[in-house]
Amino acid sequence: MQDYRAASLFQPSNLAKAIEQTMDPSSGAAPYLFGSIISIPHTIVARTVAVLGQDFIMVDAQHTPIDAENLVRIIQTINLSSEGKTVAVVRVPSARSDLLTYALDAGAGGIIFPHIDTPEQAAEAVSKCRYAYSDGDRSLAPAVLVPGVTDVAPPGSSHERIADKHIAVIIQIESPLALDNADAIASIPGVSSLMLGVGDLRVAMKLPSRAVDGKDEPILLDAIDRLVGVSRRHRMPLAVVAFKLSAASSAWLKDFQLLLTTADFLCVVKGHREDLARIKGALAEITGGPPDGALRN
């Protein structure tokens, strides 16, 4: 992602171009971008994950209790700690959330909009991320960038036009209605990617929130096939939370270009459980059995 960074790390990297080129083999760009989810809203987490080699990090402001000031700190920590090699992406609660403005002004390279069901809603999401130069209605922040220092732009351009060009708009498809409208949503100018929201789609389809016995239901697989068809017709990159997939789902994973491979919360759970079990097992091997009752849990 370093090749796509803006002239200043306080401005958004060109994630829109990086996403677009995943569908263009002639570009020589990588066909996949890999990301992680931050749901523990702390700069220490952001600083740590930002240097692990992910292409982007999704800051979840939809399901995480995060305020505007902390969101700005986390975005800038990701951009600065990675030196532009990892891009901050924010999932906002909606296109009308106050957090959207702060995320954009802080230098987020992409915005994920959940529960978009219609092309009209997708068009509103794009408009909120664009200035009037690109027919949007984003407000100009007068005290975000330092004139001549962090607002640098090529001759004849400006940081506003750079933002309009660079910021990726990612639309989550999470309902049968959204699937019905996916072709129309993909046709909206400024939409960079469609993101399959597997969990909410399962719930909206009245399926269990998780696959039973690791196998996705035929009705869900059919829905995924429909979305892949939209992607092919419109050359529209697809995103998905890959670590939730079952083994039976791996066949269609190749058709998704933005893959979220980890999440801080789940990594903490997994790491603690595995390390605890490893130490218990080592002690049991050394002592010939659990040394105390606590190890029997």
Automatic annotation (TrEMBL):
This is HpcH/HpaI aldolase/citrate lyase family protein. GO terms for cellular component: cytoplasm. Pfam families: HpcH_HpaI. InterPro entries: Aldolase/citrate-lyase_domain, HpcH-HpaI_aldolase, Pyrv/PenolPyrv_kinase-like_dom, Pyrv_kinase-like_dom_sf. It comes from Aspergillus leporis. It comes from the Eukaryota. Keywords: Lyase, Metal-binding. GO terms for molecular function: aldehyde-lyase activity; metal ion binding. Residues 44-242 form the HpcH/HpaI aldolase/citrate lyase domain.
